[in-house]
Amino acid sequence: MTDIQQKLKTLREEIRQHNYRYHVLDAPIISDGEYDRLLHELKAIEAEHPEWITPDSPSQRAGAPPASKFDKVRHPAPILSLANAFGADDARAWFERVCKLDERVSESAFTVEPKIDGLSVVLHYRDGIFVQGATRGDGEIGEDITANLRTIKAIPLKIPVSSNQSSVVSEQGELPLFKDSPALNTEYSLPEYLVVRGEVFISHKDFASLNERLSEAGEKTYQNPRNTAAGALRQLDSSITAQRPLTLLIYQIVHAEGGTVPNSQWERLEYLRELGFPVSVDSRNFSNIEETITYCANWEEARDQLPYEADGIVIKIDDLELSDSLGIVGKDPRGATAYKFPSLEVTTTLKDIQIEVGRTGVLTPKAVLEPVEINGVTVSNATLHNFDFIAEKDIRIGDRVLVKRAGEVIPYIIASITEARSGHERPVHPPKKCPACEQTVEKIQDEVAYYCINAACPAQLIRNIQHFVSRGAMDIVGLGIKIVEQLVNEGLVGDVADLYTLEKETLLALEGFKEKKADNLLNAIAASTAQPLTRLLTGLGIRGVGESVAADLTDHFADLDALRAATQDDLEAIEGIGPNIAAAIVDWFLLPFNQQILGKLRDAGLNPSNQLSVVSDQSSVFSGLTFVITGTLPTMTRAEAKEFIQEQGGKVTGSVSKKTDYLLAGEKAGSKLTKAEGLGVKIISEDELKEMVN
Ligand code: IVH
Fold first, then answer.
1. Is-catalytic flag, 115?
2. How far is the CA of 136 from the centre of ligand 1 (A)?
3. Strand-strand pairing, 651-653 and 662-665
């Protein structure tokens, strides 16, 4: 093997590891910018030597030519469905039925898994390489969506993700400790042909930020995570699929040939995890049905806390031979059932439609509903997406409408129930004037949104400031919407920079302000001048630049001046930044009004630079790692240890959690040590800490 081939091999392994840490473990140890650089390096070598490209190379996730149709794929075994159990009694009835069929069930253990409301997919691996992926189809034959599935970074292109390797040698020296990296259980041998099944979905959080980005850019927002994921999977052009935040969890071995796999569902999940597949952390194994049902009932209460939409919990008899021997009714195996959660869809009356003015001037219709309870929360507003949606669905004021609320996704209207109309319902038309400033409304070509284009529109300014001070941006506590409205309506603040020249006397003259409140607000504003670059950038409200894009930008630019100097091409070269966002950034810096704001912010002492990235460019041994310090260290004080870790790009927090990578423990370590041991967090001494750097 030549040096360059060796380099290629190392790079691929390294990228695979980072990919696994980011997309499966949710615990990255390098910045997105560093990841981009590695991938860029790999692609450069492969461009020189196309003959060395293999289908499992991390460069091969996107770029397949668009297809004209999907081929059919026959599944190696039927892709089955599940019968439902509605509540605890129904689940017990299922248990009793199967006990009657085979009394061994009464002694059996159960494995439970969240029932994700996504799309079932079937993935084929030959000799550890991902070779084909299909939709469920009719359960016998699905469609070949391999090119689309390859773009989902949670899907390993090669298994096991890692051999027993515990470190990767990179340019930054030896990168240690892929802490949770799978170490393969030697009891089983990897099947030559392995077919697994999982559920593709979009998390609540990713869906919300996707829609936020689209709505800021004046584009059509998506209606719900499931349909968005379904649409993305069925794209003939996989480069479109690649732009949607799809992920998946694997829960079943459909077929295995030329190797051995465990016979218990619980052990199979563990085995799949060891191979590098993403497996739900909320899966459990119980030795009897009552504990199983209690777990399901608890999730029914707490379903909003799941990061994705789940419509129930799947209960599976753990012994798969026993389970299979019970047979199938139609398409439902007897050995498993779905403990279903109650529906999140209800009907109510659409009382009115209000129009909100966003900070970019987008006018968004909002439904005012007859209040209705959905899963313990009273819902009185819902999104209606845009005026095209209202027209397409023929939604009228006064209609009975079907509303859904799930997780963190804002409640939305699914449809109106036309059968229930009395004839008095009123159709809705897009506005001709801005409801806040009464100026004429415009529709931009190719965009779905209507805009108020008045730069001095007070409603836009209020939203702008509200966004600037919000928790994800400058986090100015105490500056709520009421005060923002007061400041704008009294003409005291004409842009975000004016917040920094507010004086105490001015505040005291406002209704509701006393000494203490004025002091607190001024202190909070002053404290925000120390916020880092990402937050300031998020706060500026540039179209398409939310928290995550701002973080990408700060990985590449040290301060606002550097960003201002960036060209459209510079920006588009960053992964995750497309031509629209790049153009919005360039345009934003060109506007004299914005240049004035930047000047005023600078005068107020806001000119953050991104020192972290400077450190991480050189040596960021601890970048992405989180430490907790406890006890008395032999030579360092805790403050010194903290500084030492931060200098190497690490983060130090106060309490131990699942997210903690290391507990740095000295003498007389107490409860934190116990907790870390319980969670399996790696515990290190001061010496070991220093060794990691050397
Ligand atoms: S097991 C015998 N497990 O729910 C295997 N299904 O009607 C039957 N689903 O179409 C499926 N999460 O798409 C199983 N952990 C899980 C699941 C799950 C989601 C979906 C699956 C299936 C439907 C069942």
1. yes
2. 11
3. unpaired
- Asked whether residue 509 falls in the same domain as residue 582, the answer is yes
pLDDT at 612 over 60: no
CA nearest neighbour of 339 among 309, 373, 365, 316? 316
Token code pair at residue 270? 């563990």
Which residue range forms the structural domain that includes residue 272? 73-340
What are the distances in angstroms from CA 686 to CA 173, 264, 323?
Answer: 21, 42, 51
Cα 116 to Cα 313: distance, rounded to the nearest angstrom:
8
Note the pLDDT of residue 180: 46
The counts of H helices and E strands in the chain are 25, 26
The token pair that represents 660 in the structure block: 């903690």
- If one counts the domains in the chain, the total is 3
576 and 635 both lie in a single domain: no
d(CA 348, CA 354): 17
Average of per-residue pLDDT across 126-143: 96
* Residue type at 436 in one-letter notation: A
CA distance 115 to 313: 5
Residue 78 CA to ligand 1 center (angstroms) comes to 13
Which tens digits make up the pLDDT trace of 262-318? 999 999 999 999 999 999 999 999 999 999 999 999 999 999 889 999 999 999 999
Residue 107 sits in the same domain as residue 249: yes
Ligand 1 centroid to 81 CA: how many Å?
6
Residue 335's SS3 state is coil
Cβ-proximal residues to 120 (8 Å cutoff; 6+ apart), any chain = 79, 135, 136, 197, 198, 199
- List the CATH number of the domain containing 598: 1.10.150.20
- Local structure of 542: helix, strand or coil: coil
If asked whether residues 143 and 280 sit together in one domain, one would say: yes
- Reported for 475-481, long-range contacts at CB under 8 A and 24+ positions apart, including other chains, are 475/528, 475/531, 475/535, 476/524, 476/525, 476/528, 477/524, 478/517, 478/520, 478/521, 478/524, 479/521, 479/524, 479/525
**Looking at ligand 1, which residue's alpha carbon is closest to its atom 22?**
81
Residue 269 Cβ inside 6 Å of ligand 1? The answer reads no
Cβ–Cβ < 8 Å for 374, 407: no
In 3D, which of 600, 604, 609 has the Cα closest to residue 557?
609
φ/ψ bin of 382: left (φ > 0), alpha (ψ from -120 to 50), beta (otherwise):
beta
Percent of the chain scoring above 90 in pLDDT: 68
